[in-house]
């Protein structure tokens, strides 16, 4: 059995006007019901329709149920009472009053029935229970009814429709408007509340309480509760028990009558709306507190559903307060629904707009040209939904049609459409166009209050989203520090508007912060994003927050915590499948496992640490390559111990497969991360072989990991189809950088990691040196600078990390190369050259503004280990390296802005670990 709260709902569901502008398949409740659900049901279908039809409802909506020969049984909708039932209704009220010892009121009703009977009662009310209830109230108070109620004679059944009660409508409302009793006051209040109310709201509206938090006297409480009970007994309002202290629901008829005969003026509407807005804010805050405390998922969903309904109810009152105010609320709620990636609020808002506009039209409250402005914005929102949920191809025709009409649009809708085109350009890879559009739009709407004075909050909302995408484009081009400011501006405006989607922008902001070296503030920011997403039960933003939390902890040197957050994200992905999100999570989980391995390698205190590589690198590789591929590479037993380490959170597809289409930039990142994991496995192979151990890392040849590392890193740099001739690598890498959004970091980092792979595998210093020169050449060309140190002003922290890794690889190369010479001077020269590269490497790390992040600690620990190995380290290597570090410090001391306390990071590290240079004869 299907039950509809009102006939209007069925009308909207079955409307023929639900086709999408682009002809796409619309995920609409009506389509879902009539095209997908009902045809698949077996047996009889019972439709329960509550309420009475308005003029806007007709039989075609109900007849559509028979269009496919379904076996449908419609339980008759509520009907009007016949004359005898009208009389019985009044008799029931009189009996009820008598039992309550309200004898005078009971006698007044009985006298009327005895003298006039049922005929005029039916003629005056047309059998409508609402009108009968008001008649009963007038009679029991001793009031006078309109003349039609005192006529006797034959009933003209042909006129048994609304026309008979028109003469009664205005006198009834005039009576209620002048009734100087608590009943009259509350009925007048309820008459303007189509969405229903509870006692808290009524008490504030009629002045018993000043606000919703104020305590009330028992007398006031009893008076209101008693009056509401009387109203309920008269059947003027529907009563429904429920949570959230909201049991009273009003018939729509009384709302229509007050709107028609006693409409509020605009100033009173504005005042009333402000009270309603505070009421709904109070209810929302109360529900969020419950949501934060409750653990049961069923109750969480219940509270979340109620919060969504609150937004829709407030939208209704906003439109009745004024079209501009209504548009502001509509724009905020609809934008929020689309960005939340949740179809339920979108459909609720869409249907509420249709219902509200039907009623506004009936009562002649449509304001032009604002109405045309809203109609146009609805079409833009349809394209917006298609773009965000179905992709750019699905939205292309809609956007083209809208662009052809742009000259006739309001200034706000032109700005809105411009924003949407910017998002479209981002999703189609036209990042430069998108950046130009967003920058231009940001400048145009910067002073929102002046540009859109009547719809200021809608303009502020649009401004917030423009800033969010400006931050994204900065990040996409590798400008992470520059991205933080627009993200912060976006969240500031969203806080003022109290937008639920702020959690997503906070995640963006935290990601930019941690990359820029602001780990402490990044952790605070992502913690807030996570709390918001959990309170709102928004799976999409919860996954994103967990994923960024994993990045924050991993880059801050806590990969175990990073793994915990990543695995929580994986669990949520089962409830909210998304290839793109899954790919992002897998990349960061793979990196966290690799960083955990790197920590073990750096410490290498326990014996047997090298043989434990499977416990760390196999999980890492699973997230990048996928379970099936790992089994192919390493055999069926490769994952035998993994379930205990990683629970049941494994992903079978792997980030490389997940991201190769959905995100070019992150696809390059995934390939580079996989290359690093294969590089580590190849290094383990070489180490184990050097120890004389049996080499059995894969079922393939021992060169296989090395080949895979080279393959993945080459693809990450955009060189998959390019020969191994280094002279041919420059332009393809530059082209690849542009194709992944303009951020040079991941392709260049892939080249740097290829340099390290060459170093680990001892593949030749000459080729390593050429690759390092290529990296420097690319950076100079991208940033248009003549020298690399100090780094270019607009180069971002991730690029500095890559340059630092490059320099440290050159340091290690020089230290290894010294063994090829017996000449002491040549060896010392190479050691001092190594010190120069180490100096530059650590300074690049320092430019990131982080003193304790993973890569810097690993670089310093690795360098210390390298300086204390070999038989001559304390007699030859370290003293010579100290000397080179001091000379390097002298070279840089002239550039005061690039040194702290006139001392390089390297010299500080050496002093902390080994003491002052004088101890080593320097």
What does this structure look like?
With 922 residues, the protein is mostly helical. The chain is 68% helix and 2% strand. It has 42 helices and five strands. It has a three-stranded parallel sheet. Strands 4-5 form a two-stranded antiparallel ribbon. Strand 4 (237-239) and strand 5 (248-250) form a beta hairpin. Helix 38 (797-817) runs parallel beside helix 40 (854-867). The protein is elongated and about 130 Å long.
For this entry, give a set of tags.
mainly alpha, elongated, single chain
Quick overview of this protein structure:
The chain has 922 residues and is mostly helical.
Write the layout of secondary structure elements.
Blueprint: E1 2-4, H1 7-13, H2 29-37, E2 45-49, H3 59-63, E3 72-75, H4 83-99, H5 103-116, H6 119-125, H7 129-140, H8 162-178, H9 182-190, H10 199-205, H11 218-233, E4 237-239, E5 248-250, H12 252-261, H13 266-293, H14 297-321, H15 323-339, H16 343-362, H17 370-389, H18 392-403, H19 411-427, H20 431-444, H21 448-451, H22 456-476, H23 480-497, H24 502-515, H25 519-535, H26 539-555, H27 559-573, H28 579-603, H29 613-625, H30 627-634, H31 642-646, H32 655-662, H33 664-690, H34 704-716, H35 730-739, H36 745-760, H37 765-783, H38 797-817, H39 824-847, H40 854-867, H41 873-893, H42 905-914
Parallel strand pairs: 1-2, 2-3
Antiparallel strand pairs: 4-5
Helix pairs in contact: 4-5, 4-7, 7-8, 9-11, 13-14, 14-15, 14-16, 15-16, 15-17, 15-22, 17-18, 17-19, 18-19, 19-20, 19-22, 20-22, 22-23, 22-24, 23-24, 24-25, 24-26, 25-26, 26-27, 26-28, 27-28, 28-29, 28-32, 28-33, 28-40, 29-30, 29-33, 32-33, 33-34, 33-36, 34-36, 36-37, 36-38, 37-38, 38-39, 38-40, ...
């Amino acid at each position: 059995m299907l039950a509809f709260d009102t006939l209007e709902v069925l009308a909207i569901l079955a409307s023929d006007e639900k086709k999408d502008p682009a002809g796409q398949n619309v995920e609409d409740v009506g389509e879902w019901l009539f095209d997908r659900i009902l045809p698949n049901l077996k047996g009889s279908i019972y439709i329960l329709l509550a309420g009475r039809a308005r003029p806007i409802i007709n039989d075609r909506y109900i007849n559509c149920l028979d269009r496919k020969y379904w076996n449908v049984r419609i339980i008759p909708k509520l009907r009007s009472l016949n004359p005898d039932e009208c009389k019985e209704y009044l008799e029931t009220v009189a009996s009820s009053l008598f039992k309550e010892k309200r004898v005078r009121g009971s006698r007044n009703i009985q006298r009327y029935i005895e003298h006039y009977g049922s005929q005029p009662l039916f003629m005056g009310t047309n059998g409508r229970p609402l009108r009968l209830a008001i008649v009963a109230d007038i009679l029991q108070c001793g009031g006078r009814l309109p003349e039609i109620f005192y006529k006797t004679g034959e009933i003209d059944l042909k006129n048994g429709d609304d026309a008979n009660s028109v003469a009664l409508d205005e006198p009834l409302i005039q009576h209620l408007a002048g009734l100087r009793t608590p009943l009259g006051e509350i009925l007048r209040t309820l008459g303007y509340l189509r969405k229903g109310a509870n006692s808290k709201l009524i008490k504030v509206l009629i002045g018993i309480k000043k606000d919703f938090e104020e305590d009330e006297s028992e007398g006031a409480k009893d008076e209101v509760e008693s009056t509401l009970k009387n109203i309920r007994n008269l059947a003027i309002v529907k009563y429904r028990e429920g949570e959230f202290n909201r049991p009273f629901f009003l018939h729509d008829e009384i709302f229509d009558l007050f709107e028609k005969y006693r409409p509020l003026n605009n100033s009173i509407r504005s005042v009333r709306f402000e009270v309603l807005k505070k009421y709904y804010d109070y209810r929302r805050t109360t529900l969020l507190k419950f949501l934060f405390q409750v653990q049961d998922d069923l109750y969480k969903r219940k509270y979340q559903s109620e919060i969504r309904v609150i937004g829709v109810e407030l939208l209704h009152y906003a439109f009745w307060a004024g079209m501009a105010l209504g548009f502001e609320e509509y724009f905020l709620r609809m934008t929020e629904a689309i960005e939340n990636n949740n179809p339920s609020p979108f459909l609720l808002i869409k249907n509420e707009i249709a219902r509200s506009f039907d009623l506004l039209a009936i009562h002649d409250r449509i304001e032009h040209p604002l109405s045309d402005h809203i109609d146009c914005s609805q079409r833009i929102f349809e394209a917006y939904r298609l773009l965000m949920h179905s992709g750019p191809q699905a939205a292309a025709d809609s956007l083209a049609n809208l662009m052809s009409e742009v000259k006739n649009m309001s200034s706000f809708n032109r700005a809105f459409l411009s924003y949407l085109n910017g998002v479209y350009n981002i999703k189609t890879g036209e990042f430069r166009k998108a950046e130009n559009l967003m920058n231009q739009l940001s400048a145009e709407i910067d002073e929102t209050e002046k540009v859109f004075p009547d719809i200021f909050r809608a303009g502020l909302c649009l401004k917030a989203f423009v800033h969010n995408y400006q931050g994204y484009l900065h990040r996409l081009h590798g400008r992470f520090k520059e991205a933080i400011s627009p993200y912060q501006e976006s969240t500031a405006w969203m806080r003022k508007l109290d937008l639920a989607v702020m959690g997503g922008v906070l995640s963006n902001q935290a990601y930019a912060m941690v990359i820029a070296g602001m780990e402490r503030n990044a952790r605070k920011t992502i913690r807030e994003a996570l709390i918001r997403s959990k309170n709102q039960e928004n799976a999409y933003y919860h996954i994103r927050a967990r994923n960024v939390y994993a990045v924050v902890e991993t880059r801050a040197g806590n990969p175990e915590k990073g793994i915990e957050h990543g695995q929580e994200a994986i669990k949520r992905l089962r409830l909210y499948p998304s290839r793109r999100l899954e790919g992002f999570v897998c990349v960061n989980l793979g990196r966290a496992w690799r960083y955990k391995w790197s920590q073990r390698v750096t410490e290498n205190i326990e014996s047997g640490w090298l043989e434990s590589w499977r416990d760390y690198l196999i999980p890492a590789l699973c997230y990048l390559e996928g379970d099936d591929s790992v089994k192919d590479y390493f055999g069926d037993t490769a994952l035998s111990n993994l379930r205990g380490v990683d629970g049941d959170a494994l992903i079978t597809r792997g980030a490389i497969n997940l991201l190769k289409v959905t995100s070019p930039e992150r696809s390059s990142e995934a390939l580079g991360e996989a290359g690093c994991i294969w590089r580590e496995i190849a290094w383990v192979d070489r180490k184990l072989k050097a120890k004389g151990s049996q080499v059995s890392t894969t079922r393939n040849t021992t060169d296989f990991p090395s080949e895979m590392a080279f393959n993945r890193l080459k693809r990450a740099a955009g060189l998959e189809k390019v020969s191994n001739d280094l002279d041919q690598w420059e332009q393809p890498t530059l082209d690849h950088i542009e194709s992944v959004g303009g951020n040079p970091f991941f392709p260049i980092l892939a080249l740097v990691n290829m340099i390290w792979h060459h170093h680990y595998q001892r593949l030749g210093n000459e080729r390593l040196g050429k690759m390092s020169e290529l990296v420097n050449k690319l950076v100079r060309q991208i940033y248009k600078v003549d020298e690399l140190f100090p780094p270019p002003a607009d180069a971002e922290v991730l690029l500095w990390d890559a340059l630092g890794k490059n320099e440290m690889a050159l340091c290690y190369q020089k230290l290894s190369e010294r063994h090829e010479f017996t000449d002491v001077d040549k060896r010392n020269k190479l050691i001092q050259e190594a010190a120069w590269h180490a100096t530059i490497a650590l300074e690049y790390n320092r430019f990131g503004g982080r003193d304790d992040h993973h890569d810097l600690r690993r670089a310093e620990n690795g360098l210390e280990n390298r300086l204390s190995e070999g038989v001559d380290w304390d007699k030859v290597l370290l003293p010579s390296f100290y000397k080179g570090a001091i000379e390097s410090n002298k070279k840089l001391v002239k550039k005061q802005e690039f040194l702290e306390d006139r001392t390089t990071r390297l010299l500080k590290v050496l002093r902390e670990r080994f003491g002052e240079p004088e101890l080593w004869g320097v």
